[in-house]
Write a structure and sequence with these properties.
- The protein is mostly beta strands.
- A 5-stranded mixed beta sheet has the order 1-3-5-8-9, with no helix packed on it. A 4-stranded mixed beta sheet has the order 2-4-6-7, with no helix packed on it.
- The protein is globular, with a radius of gyration of 20 Å.
């Protein structure tokens, strides 16, 4: 079986390279166990790793997050003390189903209020009120890392999930 040099991007770029992925058939036949899965290899790859990465720091006010690809991860480092921080997710050039994951690194300071907004600093709140008081995440002085994931649906960002260690 042919092998690919380690230095090359591991993503297949054509049908011949797709054949190098174990378990992927290029003859059109679908094994019975895989017929109802409904997820193609490129879709799985898209869901598994970001296509673009951004970074920002925020000491006060608003920091715009502008995803540049269909699966974007943005790392935001907060500094300073208590106060409201607004993170709008830009909607320009986004397509249905795009994903944006925001990793927040915060100091061990309580009272930092993080609001995710749709497109602008006065856009619709993205965090649900039934899970987050006043549609914002408030730091507790102990948690220093949190992860939020949003999906672009019907022309706007929607909250999908978050992971905030207790």
């Amino acid at each position: 079986m042919p092998t690919r040099p380690v230095s090359q991007d591991p993503r297949p770029t054509n049908l011949e390279e797709t054949a190098l992925i174990p378990g992927v058939r290029t003859d059109g036949a679908v094994p019975a166990a895989e017929k109802n899965v409904g997820v193609e290899v490129p879709v799985l790859r898209r869901a598994m790793r970001p296509e673009s990465v951004g970074t920002a720091s925020n000491s006060a006010g608003t920091t715009l997050i502008t995803p540049s690809r269909s699966h974007h991860t943005h790392y935001v480092t907060f500094t300073g003390g208590a106060g409201v921080r607004i993170l709008p997710l830009a909607v320009a050039a986004r397509l249905e189903g795009d994903l944006c994951t925001v990793q927040c690194e915060v100091p061990a300071t309580s009272g930092i209020l993080v609001e995710f907004r749709n497109d602008t600093d006065v856009g619709a709140h993205l965090l649900p009120a039934n899970s987050f008081a006043a549609n914002r995440w408030e730091t507790d002085g102990f948690t220093t890392l949190a992860l939020f994931t949003f999906q672009f649906v019907s022309g706007a960002w929607r909250y999908l999930t978050s992971k905030i260690p207790a």
